[in-house]
Structures are given as C-alpha cells and as structure tokens.
Amino acid sequence: MNHPLQPSDPPGARGGEGSPDGEAKAIGLWQAWRLGTLGFGLASLAVFGSWAFLGRWFYQWLGEAGAYLAWSIMFLGLGGSALHRLIPDLNRWAFQRLFAGAFMSYAVIWMIAWLSCRNQLGEVLGSLFGCFGMGACLCLMQRVPNQWLRVSLILFGSNLSGYFLGSWMHQQWGMPWGAVAWGLAYGLMFGGGIGPALWLIQQKTLRD
C-alpha cells in the first residue's frame, strides 16, 4: 500500500494549492526559515497568550494535563495552518496530517518528561526526546529516515534555545507579559528550526 504523502498519491493529495499540474516549486532555505519563524511565532504567541490571560480558567476546568493537551491541540491547528506552505507539493490537509502527527509526538513526550520531573531536567529531557520523536515522525512519514538525526538536532537546538530564553524573560517580567514574551521567543526560535528542518526533508525527497 502506498504511503498517503508520497508521490504516488492520487491527484489532489499533493500539489500546491492553485497548482494546475499537481506540482509546486520547492521553496528556498531563506524562505523556509522566514515562513517557519513568522508562522510558528504567531501560533506560539496565540497559545502562550491564552496561558497568560486565561491560564487560570484552563487549569480550573481542564486540570494541568488537560490544559497542556488543549494548548498542544491549539499548536496543531494554528501551527499546521501557518506552516503548510513549507512543503508546497503537499496540500493543506496532507501537510496538516504530517505536522499534527509529528508535533503531537513532541508534545506528548514533553508532557511526560515535565510531569515526571517537574524541574529543569524534565524540561531539557522533554525538549531532547520530544524533538527527536518529532524528527523521527517527520522523516518516517516522508520516507527519508536517513535524515532523522540531522533534522532532530535542528529541532532540538532551536526548541531548547527558544524555550529557555523565553523562560528567562518570563522570570524577569512575570505574568502576563513575561508569558507573552516567552511565547514570542519560543515561537520565533523553534519556528526558525522547523522551517529549515522541513526544507532539508523536502530537498532529500526531491533528490530521491
């Protein structure tokens, strides 16, 4: 059975929106970085903003694990919608499936690490293993498993730096604006890794 995101898909499963021949020109590295940074940055700003101003409501009605799950789902929807142009030969819904599977693997691993340790070690382990899980999902779903380590390291470096820069800003400024700044730093820097990581996967897919 053919993989749903591979070139043997039926017409309409691949191909950029508005692409009459079902093929779309791959974007460059700079454009991938820009789209990742701005797209995921805006998504992260919205998610962290909901924590900054509505966090008490989320925790009261959903509990801690439920709140984290809700924010993860927000990342899936907003992030997937904002980043779908990073792989032009996948349509919006095909990309959404790819991104949702990969990001949810990161989110679940991060939550397990954090809820198990509840300290900086848990945050680092969540970032490390979560990004490696996300990288594995992206590469396996796009059938470029030999790019797994490179993609995962890009994701991990950008995620960890954005997370702890944002955490420091949050400690300096407190709630709510420190949380907003955390979301902006995390989103811009992690998005700056997601874009090039997907560009690398796309390049390998085109060569193969």
Describe what you observe in this structure.
With 208 residues, the protein is an all-alpha fold. It has one domain. Helices cover 77% and strands 0% of the residues. It contains 5 helices and no strands. The longest helix is centred in the first third of the chain and has 55 residues, at 29-83. The model is unreliable at 1-22 (pLDDT under 50).
Can you give me a brief rundown of this structure?
The chain is mostly helical. The protein has helices at 29-83, 92-117, 120-141, 148-173, 177-207.
Descriptive terms for the model:
single chain; 208 residues; mainly alpha; 0% strand
Based on helices, strands and strand pairing, what is the structural class? mainly alpha
> What is the CA-atom radius of gyration, in angstroms?
17 Å
Query: How many individual helices?
Result: 5
Shape: globular
Please tell me the overall pLDDT: 89
Q: What ranges have pLDDT less than 50 throughout 5 or more consecutive residues?
A: 1-22
Total of domains: 1
Order of helices and strands: HHHHH
Largest sheet: none
User: How many beta-strand elements?
Assistant: 0
Strand content: under 5%
What's the end-to-end separation, in Å? 19 Å
- The proportion of residues forming helix, as a percent range, comes to over 70%
